[in-house]
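I hope you will forgive my troubling you with a question about protein structure. The full record is reproduced below for your convenience:

——
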Amino acid sequence: MESHIAIGAAHWAYLAGVITIVLTMVFRANVVVPAIVATFLVTLAWTHSPVSALASIFNASFVAARELFNIFLVIALMTALLNALKSLRSDVRMVEPFRAVMKNGHAAYFMLAAITYTISLFFWPTPA
């Protein structure tokens, strides 16, 4: 039983898009425009319809928003809580009891790592 898979223009457009996005990340540039262009070109190669290719850009945005909204919400809430703690200077107050042990940067790093590890044992890990 042999099955043959034909590699078409859409596959090559997808591969070119992935390579372009990876190279863009290597050069530390913005990947939004290459991703949009790659989405357009892959859909154009697959459907041969410029209208469908243009629609795919908007559909991709909606799918990404639907999938990533929960993560964005958690990050926004955590940032808001962190800023609330900073305004109360709670971040300074929480570290103050360990100031006597933290004489230099190395000691502070390992002390904070140990404290963070100990505290994290009591909290269930979150995906964000």
The radius of gyration is 24 Å. The chain has five helices and no strands. The helical segments are 9-26, 32-47, 50-87, 90-95, 105-120.
